[in-house]
Amino acid sequence: MADKFDEFYEEYFEEQFEWYDDKAGTNKCYYRVMKILEIILAASLPVAATLYPVTTNPFWKNVIILLSILLIIFEALESFLNYQKKWINYRTTAEGLRREKYMYRTKTHEYAVVNDPETLFVERVMALTDQENRYWEIATRKAQEA
After folding, report:
1. Where are the bilayer-spanning segments (predicted)?
2. Cβ atoms within 10 A of the Cβ of 20, count?
3. Where do the domains of the chain lie?
């Protein structure tokens, strides 16, 4: 049993934790970059329209139109790609996995009273990753129906 548990821990748990942790960080970065770009564009459009009236110069008219289009594209991409939702879901799963690891290692909470902590650890880790997989399936199905 110990060999199988060690294999599960090294080949499944650690890989899953790293994957969720990495994806949470990546989606957080994408979300923040998109939001910053949206804020910059939204703030610069009224200023550009005021300083450079579109009736005086066709160049500024095209710049303002382009900035408006970019703002709409970034907002639509953010809504479609769900970086914030993914960031939160992946972070929640990664932190749940981290919590299980530390509770198992310190034999606290449920691990203190159970006869087979390795089995409990495997079951709880699988429940966490299965929950995230179910969320992904539901989100994918909704996206395909839209």
Report:
1. 36-54, 60-81
2. 23
3. 2-145
Give dist(CA 136, CA 139) in Å, integer: 5
Which residue, among 16, 40, 3, 9, has the nearest Cα to 94 in the 3D structure?
16
Query: Residue 117 in contact with residue 5, Cβ under 8 Å?
Result: no
Is residue 82 predicted with pLDDT exceeding 70?
A: yes
How far is residue 100 CA from its own chain's centroid?
A: 20
Q: Is 9 helix (H, G, I), strand (E, B) or coil?
A: helix
- What residue spans of the chain are helical by DSSP H? 2-8, 14-51, 58-81, 83-106, 110-113, 117-145
- The angle subtended at Cα 26 by Cα 22 and Cα 29, nearest 5°, is 140
What is the C-alpha separation between 136 and 140, in angstroms, rounded? 6
CB 44 within 8 A of CB 66: no
Indicate if the pLDDT at residue 54 is higher than 80.
no
Find, among 66, 78, 76, the residue nearest to 41 by Cα. Answer: 66
Looking at residue 108, what DSSP letter applies? -
Q: Is the pLDDT of residue 131 over 80?
A: yes
Q: Are 115 and 58 in contact (CB under 8 A)?
A: no
